[in-house]
Amino acid sequence: MDDAREPGTAGDRANAGGEPPRPAVDAPPAARPSPFAELGRFVRAALLEPVAPSPADPPDVVRRRRVVVVATLVAGAACLAWALRLAPGDPTFPAATLVLAALWAGGALVSGPLHLGRAHTRSGGSEGRGIVQSLALGALLLGVFLLGAVLVARVPLLRDPVQALLDHARYGPLALIAVVTAVNGLAEELFFRGALFAALAPGRAVVGAALASALATVASGVPLLVLAALVLGLVTGAQRRVTGGVLGPMVTHVTWSLGMLFLLPIALTAGS
To answer: What angle do CA 205, 210, 215 make, to 5 degrees?
Structure first.
C-alpha cells in the first residue's frame, strides 16, 4: 500500500514499544586548552623536544673547526671590547661593529658546514623552519628583559652602564645602528650556535656556547650585557639543540636585539 512503511526502522521500533523517539544528542565541544597549557606546549616544542640531531662531522672537520673557533673567539672578543669602548657618536663605531660581524660570520663559515635546521610545527609535524616560532620566542624573551629593565632602572650602578651603551643609538643614525645590530645578531648566532656549538661535545654544547658568548662580552665592562649574553645564549642554545641548525636561533636573536634597541630606553625611563 502507498502509506506502508519499511519495517524495522527506528520509528517503528520506538512506536512499537510505546516510547517516543529520542532526539539526537550532539557531542559536547572540545575544551580549549588554557593559556598556560599552550605556553607549556610551545616551550616543549621550541626548547625541549629535539626534532633531529645535526649530522655528525668527520674527525678532520671537528679538528679544523676547533682551531678556527678558538682563533675567532679571541679575535672577536678583542674587537667587541674595542667597539663597545668607543665614545658614543664616534663615526668609527658602525664600521667597528661590522668588522666584528665579519669576524664572527667568517670564522663560522670557514670552520665547516652549517645547517639551517628543522622545527616542530603546530600541527605536530617536524618539517617546518620555525620562523614564526622563533619570532614568538624572541618576543617572549624580549618581554622578560623589558620587565627586568624596569627594575634595573632603579639601581644606578646597573642602569648607568646600560645607558652609556644605548648612547651609541642616541648619537648615531638610528637606522644604521639597527642594521648593524641585526647583522651582528645574525653573525653571532652563526658563530656561537653554529661553529662553536658544533665544536663542543653534545652534552656540553648548550652551556658551553652560552658561557663563551657571555665571556666574550666581559671586556665591555657592562655587567648586564654579560648576563644578557648568557641568558640569550642558553635560550638560543636550547633552540639549536632542538632544531639542529642555526636559522631558529638567528631569528630569535635578531627579534630580541632589535626589540631591545627600540624599547629598552622606554623601559628604563618608565622604571626610573
So the answer is: 125
Amino acid found at 155: V
CA dist 193 to 22, 210, 211, Å?
A: 63, 9, 12
What string of DSSP letters covers 54-109?
PPPPPHHHHHHHHHHHHHHHHHHHHHHHHHHTSPTT-TTHHHHHHHHHHHHHHHHH
Contacts 24+ apart (CB under 8 A), 168-171: 168/86, 168/88, 168/89, 168/93, 169/261, 169/265, 170/88, 170/265, 171/88, 171/89
Provide the pLDDT for residue 221.
83
What are the cell numbers at 36?
A: 598556560
Could you give the angle at the alpha carbon of 175 between the alpha carbons of 170 and 180, nearest 5°? 90
* CB neighbour list of residue 68: distance below 8 Å, 6 or more residues apart: 107, 110, 111, 112, 195
What backbone phi and psi angles, to 5 degrees, belong to 128?
A: -85, 165
* Separation between Cα atoms, residue 48 and residue 69, nearest integer Å: 26
- The DSSP secondary-structure symbol of 125 reads -
Q: Nine-digit cell at 128? A: 617546518
186-220 pLDDT tens trace: 999 999 999 999 999 989 999 999 999 999 999 88
pTM: 0.85
Q: CA–CA distance from 43 to each of 53, 61, 140, 172 (Å)?
A: 18, 33, 11, 37
